[in-house]
Amino acid sequence: MRRRLPLWLRSLLCLWPVLLGPAAASRPRLEDSSPRIIEHPSDLIVSKGEPATLNCKAEGRPTPIIEWYKDGERVETDKEDPRSHRMLLPSGSLFFLRIVHGRRSKPDEGVYVCVARNYLGEAVSRNASLEVAILRDDFRQAPSDVVVAAGEPAVMECIPPRGHPEPTISWKKNSIRISDKEERITIRGGKLMMSNTRKSDAGMYICVATNMVGERDSEPAELVVFERPTFIKRPINQVVLAEDTVNFHCEVQGDPVPTSRWRKEEGELPRGRSEIQNDNSLRISRVNAEDEGTYTCVAENSVGKSEASGSLSVHVPPQLVTRPRDQIVTQGRTVTFQCETKGNPPPAVFWQKEGSQVLLFPSQPPQATGRFSVAPSGEMTIMDVQTSDSGYYMCQAISVAGSILAKALLEVEDVTTDRIPPIIRRGPVNQTLAIESTALLQCHVTGNPLPSIQWLKDGQRIVGSDPRMSLLDNGTLQITNLQTSDSGLYVCIATSSTGETRWSGFLAVQENGVDLQMQLPEPNLLPGPPSAPLVTDVTKNSVALIWKPNPGNGGAPISSYIIEAFSQSSGSTWQTVADDVRLEKHTVSGLNPNTIYLFLVRAVNSYGLSDPSPVSEPVRTQDVSPTRQGVDHRQVQRELGDVVVQLQEPIVLTSTTIQVTWTVDRQAQFIQGYRVMYRLKNSAWLVQDVKSPAERNTVLVDLRKGQEYEVKIRPYFDEFQGMDSEVLLVRTPEEAPSAPPQGVSVVTVGTSNSTSISISWEPPPLGEQNGIIQDYRVWCLGNESRYHINKTVDGTIRSTVLMGLIPGMIYRTEVAAATSAGIGVRSAPVIIQINQDTAPVDNGDSVSLAEQITGVVKQPAFIAGIGGACWVILMCFSVWIYCRRKKRKEMSHYTGKISSSLLPALHSSNLKGGCRWADNVSIRQCINRSGVEEWCPPLPERTYLMENIQEEECPLPPPRNDASSPANSYGQQSTATLTPSPREEKRASEDIPRLHQFEIPHLPRYELPKSAVSAYEVTFSVALTDSSPPKDLQNLYVQSLLSLFAMGSGPRLGKEGSFQADVNPLQFEC
Question: What CATH number matches the domain at 745-834, 3.30.300.160, 2.60.40.10, 1.10.8.100, 1.10.10.60?
């Protein structure tokens, strides 16, 4: 703001030309010069509160006077105002002690000029602006957290706060300023850019805004540098043997810590045998050929994913899929030995005859004779078999994983078919025919030589004496003019030098029989014969057969098959070894070892049997000893002894089944299977064979419930057996017994008049106990539940005695066994009745007192009587309460009159008489005006009625324990406050004359002051001692006191033990 010059200074300036004279005013001196600016002020930017100087120098003669102007207005300095923060320096410069600057007021900021003046003129400097530097606190854009992966670029943006001059941007990392001299770091336009970030770049970053005011730091922002997963250990390709354990390593690092998982490129990971370890490695146990493939470890975190793979190759030792079997052929026939193998890599198969050096390989040029050949599948074929071809042939399979060998015996015989017994193609069937009809019993046979046929009836040979019976050429027995005596069992016998065959059928002759043509089916309705059975597998005791059905099923579908077998060593006849066979394959078991068998098959439909199939090739079952097949038994025993079987903890599936699992630490080629042995403790071992050496588990069924079993595993090869595994114990769950106790019997015990019975029993069958019997439950059930007698007996006891039965009553006795799972089935009821005439007259001894009481209490009549009695008692009590309350009301009315007349009169007498305490007594005596001591109602020491009595005239009674009253006393003090209601105030004064109705002798009368009408307080002290007041006075006191209680409608205990009672219209407080 421009200030005006003082008046004296303006007057001096006006008079200055006059003082100098006309000459001075009119002409300048030669040496004087007008002002000239020799140093112009420069623009300034100054921080708020900081000092600043605007320079300005001028020359002239006389020395010019310099003034400063801001925005066209003169600047006031300390010369005009000593308090000003602007100072004009001698040189003419303008000095600011501090720059003053605010949001609303900006006195120092502007455009300045300095003006130099003398009498010759003035000079004005160039404009100089003075600006106040500012720097706000809030960043327009603060840096934010950034998350990048290592190797990726990172950018952190920052827009500084508003300021003048415009602030510059720099960055700090963890409080250390960042230099952009590093090639990877660039700071441009407030952005911090880093290329190819490293893990070391992670940290807290601050954007710094700087100008001449100072620095401003932004909120810190975090740069997080994550690392993609990288592998420290990668899975590698591996080649292992079957049943081995393989580990694929996978050790990764990254930030954040990556998660790892495994996958198999060709399918799923092996279930139950694969496990991921704590170090993320994959462990596969008991590997097999199906486990081959590529296994990939996948490591993944929020930044990225990495994968590493390793392949698994499993070398499986050669195994025989189809073993060659011993064969018997005749000369000139062709024989084929199967030898199908498998393994990884596939093994090479070759054949060799025992004792010969010639090796037969697949795709090998035929031998000189051209009779031996080996197919690529491994089967060897010998054509035009000669007797010299007899012997053992060995099939061997070899690979890098191992080798295996199998032998088969070839027997060449001259003629085999001559040894086959006759075959009955179609025999007699069961028939029911009418009397006088004709019966045809078929018996069509084949054989070489041609067999002879004869018939038996009921075991007796049929002779030709009966003209009604004749044997037809095809072997059929014809019976004409049938009689009932012809009924019986007819047997057709076909006999030749090779043996005999029988077929039986029953003929029933009845009057209501059906004609023959209705019984025998047409041949075209019967099924056609199946193909010759082929042998697929042979063991010591079984032969597996397959065949094909005949395309002609006849008149109905084939329902089943029948298999017949013949062995010379087992008899010279065909035997049915299997029937009701539903499929076109079957394994015939129960055969003898090292025995030659022939087989044929018949088809069955609803019309009958087909003709037999062609006879199979002879087959010999295996010998008991494996040495017959050329296996060294010492090697077998040695390898079996090295096999270690680890039995796992058995798993209970149901109460009768458990699953047994095992592992094999070392596999041997001489393992045919495993023998699972189990037993109850201290009993014989039971055996269940697992015939596949690749199996590792089995299920034991039909176990007894609630029993503890011992289980172990043993490998075997034929009759050779390996080491047993450890024995493990497993208990099946218990269930309630499924059968009742056995042999339950009930008899009367004691004398003839006894009411006790003895019950005995035996445990349920061992297989149906279903656990350990804990106890037995015995029920003796009468006609009503109150006569039931139940008892629980320990499980080791087999009998018990029940007492207290009622004579003449029929009881049903039942017994049940109980396990920890519950109570089992009850036994059948046993009925018993104790005769009344044999029982004692008084049966109270037989029934306990508690039972008798319980029986009485449970009777409905007793319960009803108790209820009626309670009702009568309640009614009597109610009547008593009513009478008492009525009596109280009457007494209250009576005593109320006494009290209302007596209490005002108690104060009507002159209270100036003295009071004292009688010697040796605790009863206060009042002295009347005549000086005669009389008994009077005791008054309180200080009451509203006695305010005017001096304290010394009526001293307080001595304390209760004071020596002045040694006599035993029994006192009671009561206080009653009477407050009349407004409507009773007049009645109170009207009732006072009624006092004359009750003449009480020696009773002084007192008048109540009107000032005390609103409240009366009377203290009654009744002390009963040896020297008591007169009897009539005592009664009066007691009646007065009782009236206070009787008049109260709601007696209650007040403060400090006072008894309060509300009386209408008066209120008593006692």
Answer: 2.60.40.10
Q: Taking a C-beta distance cutoff of 8 angstroms, is the pair 685, 677 a contact?
A: yes
- Rounded Cα–Cα distance for residues 958 and 943 (Å): 18
Q: What is the DSSP letter of 16?
A: H
Phi, psi angle pair for 818, to nearest 5°? -135, 135
The third-level CATH classification (topology) of the domain covering 321-415 is Immunoglobulin-like (2.60.40)
Q: From the options 2.60.40.60, 3.40.50.300, 2.120.10.30, 2.60.40.10, give the CATH code of 33-133.
A: 2.60.40.10
φ, ψ of residue 155 to 5 degrees: the values are -130, 130
DSSP 389-451: G-EEEEEEEEETTEEEEEEEEEEEES-SGGGSPPEEEE----EEEETT--EEE--EEE-SSPP
pLDDT in tens, 956-999: 444 444 433 333 333 344 334 343 444 444 444 444 333 333 34
Between the two ends of the chain, the Cα-to-Cα distance in Å is: 96
Distance CA 940, CA 928 (A): 18
* Per-residue pLDDT at 980: 43
CA distance 822 to 838: 39
Q: Which of 717, 697, 696 is nearest to 287 (CA)?
A: 696
State pLDDT tens for residues 409-444: 898 876 544 568 889 988 898 888 988 899 999 899
Dihedral sign, CA of 365, 367, 369, 373?
negative
Instruction: List Cα–Cα distances, 125 to 60, 108, 644, in angstroms.
Output: 14, 18, 114
Q: What percent of the chain has pLDDT over 70?
A: 75
User: How many angstroms separate the CA atoms of 53 and 32, rounded?
Assistant: 30
CB-based contact 587:544 (threshold 8 Å): yes
- Among residues 414, 396, 288, 402, the alpha carbon closest in space to that of 351 is found at 396
Structure tokens at 1066: 């008066």
pTM higher than 0.70 for the full model? no
Local confidence band at 754 (pLDDT 50, 70, 90 cut-offs): confident
Domain 416-520 fold: Immunoglobulin-like (2.60.40)
pLDDT band at 564 (very low <50, low <70, confident <90, very high): very high
E strands within 848-962?
Answer: 915-917, 924-927, 933-935
Residues 6+ apart with CB under 8 A from 1057: none
Q: What is the CA radius of gyration of the chain?
A: 67
* pLDDT number for residue 1022: 39
Beta strands in 834-884, from DSSP E residues, in sequence order: none
